[in-house]
Amino acid sequence: MSDPRVYTVGWICAISTEHVAARAFLDEIHEGPGIFIGRHHVVIAVLPNGEYGTAFAASVARDMLHSFPNLRISLMVVVGGGAPSHSTRCNGGVFQYDFGKTIQDQRFQTTGFLSQPPMALQTARPAPDRDRLYQSRVVHDSDDDCDCADICGNHPSNLVARRRRLEDEDNPAGHYGLIAAANKLMKDASVRDKLAAEKDVLCFEMEAAGLMNHFTCLAIRGICDYSDTRKNKELQGYAAMTAAAYARDLLDRIPPSRVEREKKTSELLPMSDSISAASHAIVSAQEGT
């Protein structure tokens, strides 16, 4: 592994699917935990297998800073649940909310802020008919392995009617807005709609809130479901690749000299956060030209 002090960009994933997507955009993979995306030295970390949420994200972030003290900018690149049918947003960011109190009161209890190709390629993205938005009253009561069509049905009365996208409209698109982060998944569509309307929320997720006091980062989310009882694992891979592609494009637009001028992340945090280390982080540093 090369000198850990040369790494200036951190990239955190929550699940292995996102880690695989991130590695697909590397220019070179070197031996050792420590490896360039474009012209940047980037270190990639993924949460321990089966462990999710704010506490584990914070642990991985602290461990990353302990091992790579010269990180300047960081990205949290994971999948998340969208709040459907919302207009274009002008403001962005991440805020943390108390999940229990929010569900009970059905209004946000905010606790913090984080400022014609081959067929194989054509079928890489799941078919459009797999993207179903159900009415908020329709609840998926069974386990995640059961298909929503079998449990909830595809009757038009259960679905939200939406215009089918034209061919030139079906490319991935970037949306900028507020992300609501808590330590539990949002699964109640009715509460989702009320909360999304309250603060014009774009996305619900779990991990970013854990980084607010330990790690300054940009949250990038690939949307794979609608923050309801149906968690669409079929779309997770596509969403993870979309988020990773955006992150890669973003890094390509930032000169390394600009990154070097930023303050070290460790200098922006309390001393206790800067020096504490956590166990169980899977860290993969990656280098390209």
TrEMBL record:
GO terms under biological process: nucleoside metabolic process
Q: Which SUPFAM superfamilies match?
A: Purine and uridine phosphorylases
Question: What organism is listed for this UniProt entry?
Answer: Aspergillus violaceofuscus (strain CBS 115571)
Which residues lie in coiled coils? Answer: none
Protein name, UniProt field: Purine and uridine phosphorylase
* Alphabetized InterPro entries for the sequence: NLR-like, Nucleoside_phosphorylase_sf
GO terms (molecular function) for this protein are: catalytic activity
Which domain of life, per UniProt? Eukaryota
